[in-house]
Amino acid sequence: MRNRALFFGDIRFQWKYGFYFLYLVFTLLYLMILQLLPSAWKPKVAMLLVFSDPAAMGLFFMGAIIQLEKGEHTLQSLSVSPVRSHEYVLSKLFSLGLLATLVALCLATAGKLLDHPMHFILVVFAGSCIFSSIGMMIATKTETLNQFIVATIPMELVINLPAVAYVLGYNHPLMLLHPGCCIMELILFGERMVLASLSLSFWAIGLFLLTIHVVEGFFSTLGGAKK
Amino acid sequence: MKALVQSFFMVFRQVRKDSMLIMVCFASVLAGLFFRFAIPRLETLLCTYFMKSSILEPHYRLFDLVLNLLAPYMLCFAASMVMLDEYDQNMTRYLSVTPLKKSGYIVSHLVIPAVLSTVVSMILVVAFHLTVWSFLDLVAVSIVSLLSAFSVALFIFTFSHNKLEGMAMAKLSGCILLGLPVPFFVQAELQYLFFAFPSFWIAKFSKEGHVVFFLVAFILSLAYIPPFLHKVERKIV
């Protein structure tokens, strides 16, 4: 019940602050770009677009979301309510993951990437959770939005550059220790499915658990300590 | 004048405190170094691998254009975030009734940072250029970059009530860069779909050299400013 209320609360929040409108505009824009490209480029460009934008939405917006919630004293209220840290984290991850997956599905359809829809949805959703978890951890450790933006840049480079290198052909098996490369392997190539799936699951679950731990610590500084 | 300088240094201190200033300078220089030294090596590697005479070289001008727009865009974005922060704390209203006035507030918070960052971006292009630039071309392109970055900052402040909306608007305004690659990659007859983007015209001017394209870019980027400026002025008070 609480999970559902938090989840729908987050969706309403994202709707109110224009996330859905923004991504509608971006989806149309990306679809237009994909239409202008030669057919041979479409799948790879579509994948890079999915990976760098909708999937990475959490890393971009989480700082602003947490700052706003802090400013409006939402977090202080939540920290002394029965809401648990893992419920708060889950709700953020799932609500942003839902929007990311919807946008990614549109782009994948235009980019001819949607041979296995369920498989695609799971991979994009896991990727979105990874980005959002990292964004949430950084957001709880920074004081201002500008500090958050500065702190996310190295993370974006660390996540994006190996993934781009993987798409461009540098695909040594050890690269699959990197979550971005796993996403590319699972959606674009599919030759080392087991290794990539295991690695991606490890990253998604590991970062989720770490985020809960960090958020628990963060909530305790706001006036409530809950396990 | 004194109020203007003090107000500008207030923005400067705020941006410096958040490490945003260091990031803007560092990112611009890093991009310059990358474009100047890594891109030509990458070109050599790609040409050897794909056995072609050139792959990236025809688009070197595009890298220079991105470098030119980067610093003004990032610094104006940071300045608009400072303005949103002050708006959130109701400081803009107080500042606009001090000797600074509304116009002084906008000049100190947006115009001075935009002009300074444009000078920086011109220095960066001179230091890290991949293609040959005449002085006049560089000034012309930099003026349009300045106006575009300025209108982006106005756009972000106009349509945002808080920093979260500011981030969303900043993401949307990133579209101003979208026109840059069009003359390099899109077929001639489809290019004009991007006619509303000043960045498209400036890239076209930079690639083909016709003064008409510069004039369109200049007029278009100037045309975006008055409606946003009017809204910003109304929002401040």
What does this structure look like?
The complex is a heterodimer of chains A (227) and B (237). Chain A is globular and about 55 Å long. The mean pLDDT of chain A is 87. Chain A contains ten helices and no strands. Chain A has one domain (2-221). Helices cover 79% and strands 0% of the residues of chain A. Chain B has helices spanning 2-17, 20-50, 60-88, 91-96, 101-128, 135-158, 163-173, 182-185, 188-191, 198-208, 211-223, 225-236. In chain B, helix 2 (20-50) packs parallel to helix 5 (101-128), helix 5 (101-128) crosses helix 6 (135-158) and helix 10 runs antiparallel to helix 11 (211-223). With 237 residues, chain B is mostly helical. In chain B, 80% of the residues lie in helices and 0% in strands. Chain B starts with a helix and ends with a helix. Chain B has one domain. Classes of the chains: A mainly alpha (227), B mainly alpha (237). The interface between A and B is medium-sized, with 24 and 26 residues.
Spans where pLDDT lies below 50 across 5 or more residues of chain B: none
Strand pairing plus helix content of chain B: what structural class? Answer: mainly alpha
The main pleated sheet of chain A reads as:
none
The share of residues in extended strands of chain B comes to: under 5%
What is the overall number of helices of chain A? 10
Distance between the termini of chain A: 19 Å
How many individual β-strands of chain B?
Answer: 0
C-alpha-based Rg of chain B, rounded: 19 Å
Tell me briefly what this model is:
The complex is a heterodimer of chains A (227) and B (237). Chain A has 227 residues and is mainly alpha-helical.
